[in-house]
From TrEMBL:
This is Transporter. Keywords: Signal. Residues 1-23 form the signal peptide. It comes from the Bacteria.
Length: 304
């Protein structure tokens, strides 16, 4: 049985790594990566009230752009039922002769454990930029912005049945950003003329459902496959060069992502996690610049 699990692990990782280039895109606003919406990765019965994480990621985005960044996260268990999470993110993009970097967002959320099987999360995404970066005095598209620039409300519920872990959540923007990108403002020979205009961008909300199932490879090594459908609730909007508001047709709809989490428990306090992800189904239009055909994330966390 152990040998079979190792074979399953090898096949899964091989598939993800060798086939990522065929993925068309993965869109989310970051809420699928907060602590309470990720699969539970430990079976340890030892209780710690504090957890600190540091992580880095690399991915391939639309329009020949590479993305990379890092994050810091702190989780605090206030009592048996209540906990708090704070996460700070950064993002850099490189492609088409343009490089950009900036602080992205702060995620703050509170968790309530209603029972051993049911957990609730309420939080917010606080932007650290307003998506108004420029290049040669011209506004850049969302693909080069460090943040969506929106203040978002986040709510989710988690449920566990046997070993199957289920998460359902919604992220709804309460404000919009200050992006002013209009593709036709760029020269005819510029690659950016092919990007979606997002002047006065109005972004819709998202709902997600995550289904994951942990598989113990050894006492210290765990593989957790995860399926993550995200539905963008309505078409986004922008205002064109004639000051006319337009819907971005095709921006509403489903993105279906697959993830594989590999956790190595050095000891009860120290864990290293590798997370690989790619999409299987994408929306026709993804103007928010969050598309990822492949992403790899490495994380170290310590409990105390």
């Amino acid at each position: 049985m152990t040998k079979f699990k190792f074979i399953l692990l090898a096949i899964t990782l091989f598939y993800l790594v060798t086939n990522y280039s065929y993925g068309q895109g993965c869109s989310d606003a970051g809420f699928c990566t907060i602590n309470s919406f990720k699969p539970n990765s430990t079976d340890s019965t030892e209780v710690f009230n504090n957890q600190f994480k540091v992580g880095a990621f690399y991915g391939n985005a639309d329009n020949s752009i590479s993305v990379y960044g890092n994050y810091l996260e702190y989780n605090r268990q206030l009592s048996e039922k209540f906990g708090l999470d704070v996460k700070l993110t950064t993002l850099a993009q490189n492609g088409n002769g343009i490089s950009a970097f900036g602080l992205s967002d702060i995620f703050v959320n509170a968790n309530f454990k209603a029972s051993e099987k049911v957990k609730f999360t309420l939080g917010a995404k606080i932007p650290l930029s307003n998506a108004s970066k420029t290049y040669d005095k011209l506004p850049l598209p969302m693909d080069y912005q460090a943040s969506l620039g929106t203040f978002d409300l986040i709510f989710g519920i988690g449920y566990e049945i046997k070993k199957i872990q289920l998460i359902a959540a919604i992220q709804q923007p309460l404000t919009q950003n200050d992006n002013q990108f209009i593709a036709t403002n760029y020269p005819i020979n510029s690659e950016l003329r092919t990007f979606q205009s997002t002047n006065k961008f109005e972004r819709s909300g998202d709902v997600l459902l995550r289904v994951s199932y942990p598989i113990n490879i050894t006492s210290k090594l765990k593989l957790t496959p995860s399926i993550l459908p995200i539905y963008h609730l309505s078409n986004d909007k922008y205002t064109d060069e004639f000051n006319v508001e337009n819907e971005i047709v095709g921006s509403q709809g489903l993105t279906l992502n697959g993830n594989a989490y590999l956790d190595y428990e050095i000891n009860s306090k120290n864990i290293i996690q590798l997370n690989l992800g790619m999409p299987f189904i994408v929306r026709d239009s993804r103007p928010d610049g969050l598309t990822r055909s492949f992403i790899a994330n490495i994380e170290y966390r310590i409990k105390f």
